[in-house]
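A further point concerns the way the authors explain their paired sequence and structure data. Since the whole study asks how a given chain folds, the encoding of that fold should be made plain. A single example would do more here than another paragraph of explanation. An entry of this sort, consisting of the sequence and the corresponding backbone structure tokens, reads as follows:

_____
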Amino acid sequence: MKIAVIGAGGVGGFFGAKLAASGCDVTFVARGNHLRAMREHGLRLREGRGAAEDLHLREVRAVENIDQVEQADLIMIAVKLWDTEALAPTLKRLVDRGAAVVSFQNGVHKDEILRRHLPAEAILGGVSYIASVIAEPGVIEYKGALQRLVFGEFSGVASERVKAFHAACARAGFQADISEDITRTIWEKFVFLVGLSGTTSSIRQPIGPIRKNPQTRAFLHDVMREVVAVGRAKGVALAEDFADDRLAFADTLQPDMTSSMHHDLQRGNRLEVPWLSGGVATYGRELGVPTPCNRAIADVLALYAEGTRG
């Protein structure tokens, strides 16, 4: 497959490198020091700080702009959410030539934005599960064995393009699943993502202390229950008690597990909070669903949302 990976960070860099190593024709769209390092030294994957690299792609096709990609069967989007609006129109050239588009970004707003600029039939739904970051330019560092993509047609049909991508992922050696209800799958991840990102960022602690303290544990539960209520009000087939399931899942995680938004907060980077807890609060206002916990998180983090570096 010819695959264009837009955003070579923790998600795009990891899965793109695995796909390239297995024989897919992968072009990374990256920027800055990370792009320069990939061009000069390749792309490296390693499990944890100080660990030996377990994959080194010495030859990497990396460009600065999607306009430099001539053809693609599939475009994987893994940039931050705030880039989506500007990015989407630039994909039409490749879509008109037959490319499918799948976003592995956080949240539920991503596909709404893509549909405003691209034909709905070109868009697949997708979610990623991995704890990974750019440790330094040209190096992706990941934690744990959870390395999974889930994707599918919004119609629920297992199309040939979905099957082809699934086969490519299998050859690459990471877990991949085809979802028959990708909208629900995206929202199921969203429930926990909002809970984890919102609490770790606003409380400034990893999941271990949050789930151990009765008051912060209840707060995490309430945050996720609000997301479930909003999703159900939008017609998503979420179980009414799905937040209970996600709280039990939180108990299985390593106590030092945190969120990418918490990492961004610590580094003074821009935050995705307007599309996570802030997005839940906005949906809540539109649908008449109370979301006091998510609104509180969005308010607490408002001064940091644009980043604090410099």
Summary: The chain has 13 helices and ten strands. The chain has a mean pLDDT of 95. Strands lie at 2-6, 25-29, 43-47, 53-57, 61-63, 74-77, 100-103, 123-136, 139-152, 175-178. The domain at 184-304 is CATH 1.10.1040.10 (N-(1-d-carboxylethyl)-l-norvaline Dehydrogenase; domain 2).
